[in-house]
Amino acid sequence: MDRDQVETVSLRWLRRLVIAAFLLITVLPFWYMLVLSVRPIERLLLDPGSLWVPLGELTVATYTEVLKAAEDGGQGFLTFIRNSGLVALAATLLTLLVAIPGAYAVSRLRFFGRRQVNALFLAVYLFPSIVIAIPLFVIFTRAGLRGSLFGLVLVYISQTLPVSVYMLKNYFETIPISLEESAAIDGAGRFGIIRRISLPLAAPSIMAVALYDFMIAWNEFLFALLFLVDKPDRWTVSLGLSLLADGVEVPKTVLMAGSVILTLPIVILFFASERLLTEGLTAGAEKG
């Protein structure tokens, strides 16, 4: 084998080893969490390091306890899932409702301060969330929105809207303007062009932004704790999981079952939309 062949084969195997290492690092913790969630606590105490569960030891009692209502002796995660789902879906839909026309306007229309608006979209993320947490707490308390899921939705929209507009703007700029000009010549108005030309072509990017917004709203903890701490019936999944983690009397198997319930919806959504997510995140990178 000459030098070129040796380097090609070496790089091929090195790439495979690196991919296998990353898979091990990412999959092993989730696998161990899943194993712990389906093991009886007494078997876990006897062999805590086992990565396999014999069929005779499999149990779903931990999930039953996690999902059962609190008044029935469970942890009430069904309520938490419902709250998180409502908040995440509402935040995602409302963010897209504002971000899509906003991104289109920035990418296609010419107006005073356009360059400055582009910079402001990302300048929002120069400030950590904790900086605006207290002012938002005071404002929402005076407005009577503290403790409500609607108030939490508004907070999540303010957190995800700037980057959503920025991502969609980059994608809209990759759509040939000649397509829109042709539609305008044929008599289509601005809204007709957006609905028939721009939105169908921007579908991958819109899906990527929707998944991003949903994941942020589903997993967020700080603002959920700040606004809902005194309303247990309105807690989200992340708050419910923190309750399990702080409870000394809660078995670790039950805690792991709650962790799986928190993680699994995002994992399923990601893999179901992985192709669209990848296309949407990378599209417009050159031009944007």
TrEMBL record:
<dbReference type="InterPro" id="IPR035906">
    <property type="entry name" value="MetI-like_sf"/>
</dbReference>
<protein>
    <submittedName>
        <fullName>Multiple sugar transport system permease protein</fullName>
    </submittedName>
</protein>
<feature type="transmembrane region" description="Helical">
    <location>
        <begin position="253"/>
        <end position="272"/>
    </location>
</feature>
<comment type="similarity">
    <text>Belongs to the binding-protein-dependent transport system permease family.</text>
</comment>
<feature type="transmembrane region" description="Helical">
    <location>
        <begin position="17"/>
        <end position="38"/>
    </location>
</feature>
<keyword id="KW-0762">Sugar transport</keyword>
<keyword id="KW-0813">Transport</keyword>
<keyword id="KW-1133">Transmembrane helix</keyword>
<dbReference type="InterPro" id="IPR050901">
    <property type="entry name" value="BP-dep_ABC_trans_perm"/>
</dbReference>
<feature type="transmembrane region" description="Helical">
    <location>
        <begin position="86"/>
        <end position="107"/>
    </location>
</feature>
<feature type="transmembrane region" description="Helical">
    <location>
        <begin position="205"/>
        <end position="229"/>
    </location>
</feature>
<dbReference type="Pfam" id="PF00528">
    <property type="entry name" value="BPD_transp_1"/>
</dbReference>
<dbReference type="InterPro" id="IPR000515">
    <property type="entry name" value="MetI-like"/>
</dbReference>
<keyword id="KW-0472">Membrane</keyword>
<feature type="domain" description="ABC transmembrane type-1">
    <location>
        <begin position="81"/>
        <end position="273"/>
    </location>
</feature>
<keyword id="KW-0812">Transmembrane</keyword>
<feature type="transmembrane region" description="Helical">
    <location>
        <begin position="147"/>
        <end position="168"/>
    </location>
</feature>
<feature type="transmembrane region" description="Helical">
    <location>
        <begin position="119"/>
        <end position="141"/>
    </location>
</feature>
<keyword id="KW-1003">Cell membrane</keyword>
